[in-house]
Amino acid sequence: MQSTLSYEKKLLIYTNMVQLDNFQKEKKTISIAKANLYSIIGLIPISILYFIPFYFVWKERLNITYLKELTRTMDLATNGLSLSLVVIFTMIAGIVLHELIHGISWSLYTENGFKSIRFGIMLKMLTPYCHCKEPLKVKHYITGAIMPAIILGLFPALVAIVIGNLPLLIFGTFFTIAAMGDFMIIQLIIKEDSHSLVLDHPNEAGCYIYRQNKI
Length: 215
Known about the structure:
Helices cover 59% and strands 15% of the residues. It is an alpha+beta fold. It has one domain (22-212).
């Protein structure tokens, strides 16, 4: 109760409104299990989206001989460290960075900066999360929600296609798919009025929408 009250007080300050009665509140959340399922389903179209242009530009790098040589080169580069451990460490570091990008992006639009950002893990699904404690404009919330997909997914994939780096392409593909939950949340609010506010949900994947009542 205390947590909800503090959020509403922040909303009043942020909007310079006298009462929250001036807003209609609606909860918009997604299922983590459903987001994970959509990530699996999204593997095929996203892989096609990235790998087809890579194939046309770097066809010779998608064959068994090249893959064996690439694996050998990566083994040498890791000084004997298990390649699987390197992959696992890279994925974990990327997941942490994914949430950090959310936090940094949202903090640019908050009154209290990074102090309004909180990180944690949803224990039931072992899913890390980033939570913004201040309400944001719709466009600002969407910006923070989509930035990890752009920085860790789309951008590495485009660079990989240009320079012919297969591991980087796989990295970009993985982290585009990892942003599926973010895409689902964006889809819930993208048609909202620009004057509406978005308050990140404190313990579920999603948010509250505050729509200003028409007078």
